[in-house]
Amino acid sequence: MANATKIHWIRAVLAGILAELAVFAIVFPTRHFFGQRAFLASILIASALMPFLFALWVGRHIQSLFLLHGLLVGLVAALFYLGLAWGQPQPLLYRVAHGLKIVGGACGGIVASRRKPTEG
To answer: Alpha-carbon dihedral of residues 66, 55, 52, 54, nearest 10 degrees?
Structure first.
């Protein structure tokens, strides 16, 4: 039982970092091909969607604490960006995006918990 309730730190941290890298992979080409307005919109969309998707991935490999794992994915994604941008000003849009990463990860954890087949 103790193994079922443990936090899978490596998986959650890896998923958070990959989620943030996926955000970069979406928003910078969007800026190049579609301009500044699309870039700004894509930041918000990708910031919610990528942690959501990566939290679903984490949820496929765990047995419990889905919401916590999803929150960790989003938090790591936000902290990873903040670490990369250390000392640079954070516009309001970026702060909102960081919040969306946490919310997206949490929602992914909730959805993952509902998709997990119950044993018994």
So the answer is: -170
The two tokens of residue 101 are: 């990463």
What is the chain's length?
120
The domains of the chain are located at 9-115
Of 5, 111, 95, which is closest to residue 51 (Cα–Cα)? 111
| Cα angle value 118/119/120 (rounded, 5°) | 120
pLDDT at 120: 45
What is the C-alpha to C-alpha distance for residues 105 and 112, in angstroms, rounded to an integer? 10
pTM: 0.91
- In which residue are the tokens 């301009």 written? 35
